[in-house]
Amino acid sequence: MMKTYLRLCMFFLCVIFAILPLQVSASWQPEISVGLSQGISEVQLSATNGKLSVYEDPEQKPILVVPQGGTLDVRMMREQLVVNGREIKGERLVIQPETSGFIQVNHAPYRGYIAILKRTGLTVVNYVLVEDYLYGVVPKEMPPSWNAEALRAQSVAARTFALKNRKSHSAEGFDLCSTSHCQVYEGMPAETRTTTAAVDSTRGEVLFYKGTIMDALFHADSGGMTESSEYVWGTSVPYLRAVAEVQMQTQPWNHTVSMSEFAQKLEKHGRAIGTLKEVRLSPLTVGKGSSDRSPSGRVRSAEFVGTKGRITLSGNELRSIFSLPSTLFSIRIGKTDINFSGYGSGHGLGLSQWGAQALADKGKSYKDILFHYYTDVTLEKLY
Question: What's the sign of the alpha-carbon dihedral 85, 89, 90, 92?
Fold first, then answer.
């Protein structure tokens, strides 16, 4: 019986490593590399306390030790790395602080350590444990003053998203970027007491779908109903299904463009119609679909009739061309302009952040919130 138990334990560990081949600490916590800057010509680093050790090869002795209070100046000159005035022939530097301090990049402190890559200019990468990474993410993705349960839900979604999308920037030399393309990350200056507590209270908790880490997408506000993935991506994802919110027609917005600007932007995208005469799009009702709207009410397609012909554009195309907050909108033609009016903000997939706040304010737990927005998923403690 004991041998069977041990074999099962070893099998489980092997599965974890197969699913998540990450560097880990003694506490089995994964490490993620985050691209802080790309294509820059110089960067200054220092320590909050203690010295900095600079390596070309972390397995060898440091090539330079920067004393406490000192600055490490790294530049790209004549296609070579120049470190405090000394030319380095290598392609990569690793800068490690002492355990008593943190590393500062252009005066902003970060947990973990830094690598500098010689690419087209310098690429600055922060290697950081996942929980430490989340300390600098959650307060930038959700207001720290919000309900603690909403912050916990955001923490789990952000952790899951990071682990699922690790390696998405591997061609550039890191796992995730520090912008909204991945998740906004600003290191220690972003950290707050409430968001750090939310991360700590959900430590290691990750969302799975049928044994695999899911893609925990989130957005600002659904407008009253989230979207199913096939109406955004064109493919169905079982756990990204449209669900209704506790509040409808949230985050109303208006966006007006002149007739000339409308025609110019369409022509720029290869869709010339001349002067707009008519728009064919069914009325908007949140949560009601039609032939040209998804079941949530978002625009699937709209037809435009002009002096040079007619064209059909998807809601996603219109959102991109005219920088609209969402695809949950109506269109009205005026005498000299065109008005888009709608609700919500973002792609509508997965967790709605304002919706999460509304659910939390009604007494729902972070688990309730997660299971509301993600269909048929499980919440597992990975480490």
Answer: positive
